[in-house]
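User: Can you help me understand a structure? I only have the sequence.
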Amino acid sequence: MDWECCWDREVIALDDCPNIHEGDEDLLASQRRRILEKCCDCDNFKRDLSRFRDSGHPLSPVLSLVHEEYQRQKSQIQSLVSFLDNKTLEVRFLHELGSVLQSSVDLEEVLSVALTAITAGKGFGMNRAFLLMTDKERDHLQGYLAIGPRNYEEASQAWNEIARNDMDLQTMAQSFRENKLSAERAKFHDILELLSVPLSRTDHILVKAMDDKHPILIEDAFHHPDVDPEFARLLGVDTFLLMPLISRNRRVGIIIADNCITHRRITDEDMRSLETFTFPVAFAIERAALYDRLQVELNRVTEANNKLKEQQELIVRMEKMALVGRITSSIAHSIRNPLMIIGGFARSMLKNTPDNDPKRDFMESIVGEARQLEGVLDEILNYSDSLYPTRDFWDANYLVESAIRDTAEAQRARGCTCGFTAGHDLPPACIDFKQVAYCLRTILQSDIDQTVDHGVIDIGTSLEGDGIVIRIEDRGRRLSQDELDVLLTPFSSTQDLGSGLGLALCKTMLEKQGIPFSAEPLPEGGVVYTIILPTRKEEQP
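Assistant: Let's start by predicting it. Here is the structure, written out as tokens:
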């Protein structure tokens, strides 16, 4: 018989078989492989087999039976190979998914990975997924996050983007979290807001699925007896899958997945795969949520601990200052009475002493020293009183003008001028007027005491943020930062006692009112004092 197929020849040429192309040249000299791989599916071979069967040869039925069985088994093997390839990809996917879920304690990352896995083509390939989480405080099941397209154009754009960027699951989830998470929330905001079901509604299909702890495939949703028609209209699909998220018998939430674009049928195999997937997702979500709550509690405890330390330090400082106040007040009052008697007698004797009396110089010296000691005692008593400021709302410009007016005589005596630039539309400052005015007078008087003749002091007020800034600038003084630090420390000055306590007392008074105070040397020479007055009572400690 003259055969059309080349199966009976051991060696053939490239043009002898229509099924052999470039790259298959090794089949030209291998008859066995050529028969198994090419001839059994060749139309020429099938015609040869038909002619052989019509010839009545006794082997023709056997050969036909063998060929049919070979074709059937080959088809089964190909199906098994395809099934194994799919399972291999699924195992790799689940391994990658499990690795991410086990290592992450970030709730947003866990949710991004979970929803990306449901909708990714490399994952379970669903078109859309909604996540609802239980709110234990409100006893509600509330829509939290969604992912997927809302129309075919958007879906086509997403699929083309995925095809161009061959990313693994973790990379896709990270990209979704960084670039699309907020946009997806906003896109499905209307649906997520309405996906709210009280957990007490045991007749609702979502609560029923969570109570049953098994996935439920809903088909013909618009006519399903267990599905609320309003809920079906909200999703806008006739078929969807409900996957409860249960972790150690605790209801974490539920995932709703559907194929709203492709309308691909959801199979039992899809349900089994997604059911296996929901267990690690529920555990990871619960762990991440617990971690977030733990972080909140940890921050709360840390903040409370810091406040406790601050309160303890404040109590220690207040106790120290109260002790200093009691000591200074006791000493001052003990000294003041005999000092007033000495000063009074000296002044009385001075009035009755003639100008040409040689004792008059001694009397004047006693009166002057007594007056200086009385000033020191006033400062010490003010230091004690500064522990208990009384605040009210005052005009900052009036405060500065009063201090300038009170020191005007001393300014004129030294030939010093004081310029004031008042800020406009300043709100009232919440301060102890008496103490802050004393501080301003002390600063101005200190500058006058140390400024060269014909010096200039510039004062300005302005509003910066919520505070009123008083800036006092004196370019006639030449002090280093170390010298200023000494002046701001009580009783640490190398000068006489009175001058050494003034600025330190000012700093203490202002700190007790929560008013920032600083004194800094200027690079070009001079000193600048900055006081920031609060405008609200809640800013006070």
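Now, to help you interpret it: Confidence is low (pLDDT under 50) at residues 493-500. Residues 53 and 387 are 119 Å apart (CA to CA). Let me know which part you'd like to focus on.
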